[in-house]
Design goal:
heterodimer, A: 301 residues, mainly alpha, 2 strands, B: 327 residues, 15 helices
């Protein structure tokens, strides 16, 4: 076989394998996206869909098993009720709000902060760079959850503080990537051209460099939403999440702890599954985004 | 820069990080304004509040307070726990062996299972086996650890009675006391208690390790020197073990240092689930009693340990990476 034919055959084989692989993979991201849409819909329309008020207590119908019938309202609690007789399904629907909102907003906070600082560090270098990276190193010196715990103990729990604690915990990842990418872009011709045309630093950074470094940041953000949702659930489990009147998945799991040894498995099963499916979807989405937006990142994560 | 220079630079960096850690811990404590209110009960009188403020020095200028805090740290004094009425550092250190035991077992599990799984997946790239391992790894990275712990507790512990649901037989405490004989005789009894909590903590890291090893090995396998080794007619086994793995495991080493810190974070929740008598459960109780000095002590101890482990890993890296060693 001649060299060129060999290469062509190799390419065809490669393309075939790639196509099959992307098909194989495309099935999962589609499923993940569909699942996220359902969860997003639950977060948005939960109050309309939920059969009962998630906080309505009914002490007569405490700890009812799934599929049990409420004799008074003739309503089926298909996911059962908790220790205060609240409908688990309704609480689960409402809980989607906290998980998604906290996950997305915290990543947005951390992403904006980290990208800004990282780009400034990469673009200006020198003392700015040294300072930002020093702070990043210090933050990486902490086991993150513990710092978040202390932060929330001092400032008190609540949605805003939770988002701040989780968001501030994430900025380093974005800063490091944004910095590296900005350094790579800084010396390119288009930046020099913009500079020669008299464009200011802010203009070059935002309209010139940012669009060129965005894709790895988006990939990281998707994985990051997944890990922030897990962290939120863990903090809620420790009693540092949203107040108990706001239904959240982590909080539901925390409440289930007292009933577990008595065998009320449904209190733990449903919210845990909800968390896992949401996180799994964001992880699958991240994998897919990485493959499509930035093949070079494959080795990193 | 010579080897000594690199090591010196890394040591200075670690020292700066330690100073930074103390600054951040101190700043966090003061984020909400006067921290006195964190130290007194809800029904404290004005006189009690003032007395506490003066006693703990919260009426002094912030710089003076930080210097006092740093000096205390150098003398291993982090104030008294509000619930134990003993030095907080001592209370944390007393429970530290239990946590270390769990963390080290979990890390070993992650390495011993994660690395071969990753290698296996990489060698079977694109085949169902690879897909299966990667799917499991994805699941492992998506399951909340404490929930996994609860499920194990419910099924393996409560329903099937395979393993004890809580408790611990000490291993590291006698070992630290120099009594290795007791540690050895305790081992058979200790293992059943260790299994569920350490597996629970390890799953996430195990999954991440498998994924990292796979992609790291795949990257190395596409390098020119691997092709050269194959072209020389070396057996596939020799190519993988002597050429590819040798270079693929360096990024894994760095990751393990970071993983250690991650596992330390994980213990807080998992120890709570299994009532493991370590620092994690201590922190959980401290949260419920708003025992700030205790949490502060745990944060500092964990951070110092984490910084030391990462320093060690980086020094090892300098020692092991021929590109640095021979430069």
């Amino acid at each position: 076989m001649s060299g060129a034919a060999e290469i062509a055959a190799g390419r065809a084989l490669n393309a075939g394998r790639r196509a099959r692989r992307s098909l194989l993979r495309a099935k999962w991201p589609v499923l993940a996206l569909a699942l996220l849409l359902v969860i997003g819909a639950a977060a948005l329309f939960g109050p309309r869909v939920a059969p009962v008020d998630p906080n309505r207590q009914n002490l007569i119908a405490r700890l009812q098993a799934p599929w049990s019938l409420d004799r008074r309202s003739h309503r089926v609690h298909w996911m059962g009720t908790d220790a205060l007789g609240r409908d688990v399904w309704s609480r689960l629907l409402y809980g989607a709000r906290i998980s998604l909102a906290v996950g997305l907003v915290a990543v947005l906070v951390g992403g904006l902060l980290g990208t800004t600082l990282g780009m400034l560090a990469g673009y200006f270098g020198g003392a700015v760079d040294a300072l930002v990276m020093m702070v990043a190193d210090v933050q990486l010196g902490f086991p993150f959850i513990l710092l978040a715990i202390m932060f929330l103990l001092v400032l008190g729990p609540g949605v805003v503080n939770l988002i701040l604690a989780l968001g501030i915990g994430q900025w380093v990842t974005y800063a490091r990537i944004a910095r590296g990418q900005t350094i790579a872009q800084r010396e390119k011709e288009y930046v020099e051209a913009a500079r020669a045309l008299g464009q200011g630093h802010a203009g070059i950074l935002v309209s010139g460099i940012l669009p060129n470094i965005l894709s790895p940041l988006i990939v990281i953000a998707s994985f990051n939403v997944a890990s922030v949702i897990l962290a939120e659930a863990a903090l809620s489990f420790l009693g540092l999440g949203v107040p108990p009147t706001v239904p959240s998945w982590g909080g539901m799991l925390a409440e289930s702890r007292d009933e577990l040894l008595a065998g009320y498995w449904w209190l733990a099963l449903f919210p845990g599954t909800a968390i896992m499916l949401t996180v799994l979807s964001f992880n699958i989405l991240g994998d897919w985004l990485r493959d499509w937006l930035d093949p070079r990142l494959t080795a990193v994560t | 820069m010579g080897l000594a220079g690199l090591v010196a630079k890394r040591l200075v960096q670690a020292l700066l990080v330690v100073v930074g850690v103390t600054l951040v811990t101190f700043a966090t404590l003061h984020l909400g304004g006067d921290p006195t209110y964190l130290y007194v009960g809800e029904h404290a009188s004005a006189a009690q509040i003032t007395a506490t403020r003066v006693k703990l020095g919260f009426d002094l200028p912030l710089t003076t307070q930080y210097l006092r805090f740093a000096r205390g740290l150098l003398h291993a004094d982090l104030g008294d726990s509000l619930t134990f009425h003993q030095p907080a550092l001592g209370v944390v250190l007393e429970r530290f062996p239990a946590t270390l035991e769990l963390t080290c077992t979990a890390l070993s599990l992650a390495v011993v299972l994660g690395v071969p799984l990753g290698v296996f997946a990489a060698l079977h790239r694109g085949r169902p086996l690879d897909g299966g391992i990667m799917l499991l790894a994805l699941l492992g990275q998506s399951i909340p650890s404490f929930w996994l712990g609860i499920l194990l507790l419910l099924f393996v512990g409560l329903a099937w009675h395979w393993l004890p649901i809580s408790g611990r037989v000490p291993l590291l405490d006698p070992l630290f006391a120099g009594d290795w004989r007791t540690a050895w005789t305790n081992l058979p009894q200790a293992l059943p208690f260790l299994v569920m909590p350490s597996v629970t903590i390890a799953v996430f890291s195990l999954a991440r390790t498998a994924r990292l090893v796979r992609s790291s090995l795949l990257e190395v396998l596409s390098q020119d020197y691997v092709r050269t080794a194959r072209a020389k007619g070396l057996s596939e086994r020799r190519v993988i073990v002597h050429h590819a793995l040798r270079n693929a495991w360096l990024p894994v080493l760095t990751m393990l240092g970071l993983e250690f810190g991650f596992l330390l974070s994980g213990v807080v929740v998992v120890e709570t689930v299994f009532s493991w008598p370590g620092v994690g459960r201590l922190v959980f109780n401290a949260i419920n009693h708003r025992d700030i000095p205790l949490v502060e002590a745990a944060v500092i101890v964990f951070s110092l340990l984490f910084v030391s482990v990462n320093l060690l890993v980086d020094l090892l890296y300098i020692r092991l990476d021929p590109r640095i060693r021979l430069a």
